[in-house]
Amino acid sequence: MVRTRWCAALVTVLAAASLPFSAQPASAAAVQYEAENAVISQGVVEANHAGFTGSGFVNYDNVTGSYVEYTVTAAQAGQHTLTFRYANGTTANRPLDVTVNGTLAADDLAFAGTGAWTTWRTVTATVNLAAGTNKIRTTAVTANGGPNADSLSVDGGGGGPVTGTPVEINGKLHVCGVKLCNQYGKPIQLRGMSTHGIQWYSQCVKTASLDALATDWKADILRVAMYIQEGGYESNPRKYTDMMHNYIEEATKRGMYVLVDWHQLDPGDPNANLSLAKTFFAEIAQRHKDKVNIIYDVANEPNNVTWARVKSYAEQIIPVIRAQDPDSVVFLGTHGWSTFGISDGRDENDILNNPVNATNIMYTFHFYAASHQDEHYDALARTADRIPVFITEFGTQTYTGDGGNDFAYSQKYLDLLAAKKIGWTNWNFSDDSRSGAVFKSGTCAGNSFTGTSMLKPAGVWVRDRIRTPDDFPTG
Questions:
Q1: Could you report the per-residue pLDDT of 369-387, keeping only the tens digit for each?
Q2: Which residues are catalytic?
Q3: pTM to 2 decimal places
Q4: What residue numbers bound the domain in which 334 lies?
Q5: CA 122, CA 37: separation in Å to the nearest integer?
Q6: Largest CB tally within 10 Å, which of 236, 240, 264, 363?
Q7: Other C-beta atoms within 10 Å of 412: how many?
Q8: Rounded to whole angstroms, how far apart are CA atoms 445 and 168?
Q9: Which helix (H) or strand (E) holds 318?
Q10: Among 319, 255, 325, 258, which Cα is nearest to 285's?
Q11: What beta strand segments (E) does 66-194 contain?
């Protein structure tokens, strides 16, 4: 949500440097951003006056400094027209200051009375936007606060497709209903890769491979698998925290979302590592809280543990993140190796009847198509209509990450995920000897990662499915 105050003054904002690849073009027509989906300070979302668009409007508190902040995307740098839809049932002007990326762009923009709170009018301002993501804040400048804010529309700035990286187009993500939604409040599907354990395969996560993942594979998201045991974080917390910091920055440079994976596996009860997790996530969230591309995964594969224990862990670790980063999405592994309990002889009702007491979270599900077929598939299909789900790990092989590929059942899963707009990351982006690693053995010793000559069959298959055009709605 955003602050408000607007005026017709024009300010020049330097265009942000483009990141190295383009995502699927979208329409350059005016894009509407609902105020209720913005960042709000000292205001509330209401729906008690008819005529609004979307699900409601923002009622500013009657104080100076209350604001609504929209995150918008411009296809190109230059002049753009902002159109604010509002209602003001008083006779007094309720001016707002409009800032773009922290710089005043419109001083005391007038929002005159409209005659009734159900009568909606528009006010426009012309500003310069940077190419890519911009923060537009509208801030009240009098003790009366601002008008009721319904929406902001941003024109296309002269036409042309909306291009950019996944992060440039989608901005800050949030959970809406049971979907992962972009800055426009539209459900999206992210597709990408998971690293193997960074304690073993850091040589596969370097400049050349990440460039290939972003530009050749056209991935939307990188999952960084940081094991806790097995020579991982527990053995040297400082080293692995610093490695994670670096990978977050590298994904950010390339315009990809980054999933910080707390890869607990054995012991299967995540509470065994709770103290370590609190230390790690407090530092990660504090440093990266202002990034729009970060997602936290607080438990990889809880196993041989009850859902009640997993829920207890989640309700202790999520507040640690929220204390630093109140807005980013948090993922949580589910019992039964993240199968909603199916692989432990339970089912999704454990979760549905006792959900985690937190907002803006998603529950994760893992499948390996040669092992996890009808029972797991059906559970996923049912559950994804009830709670927010993300597939943080899947393979076309058996659950060992090895063996023959079942591409037919894998495609059945991916068709379901596409239909329900459920995001996924594939296991794994390494040259491990098993069939689930996408690169042939020895590939990571070099710097050639584009094309298919260095890929195993599973790598060719998943690369083709990541490269298909994204569907990132903006209007």
A1: 999 999 999 999 999 999 9
A2: 301, 393
A3: 0.70
A4: 174-467
A5: 19
A6: 264
A7: 15
A8: 32
A9: helix 307-324
A10: 325
A11: 67-74, 78-87, 96-100, 103-109, 121-129, 132-140, 148-154, 174-176, 179-181, 191-194
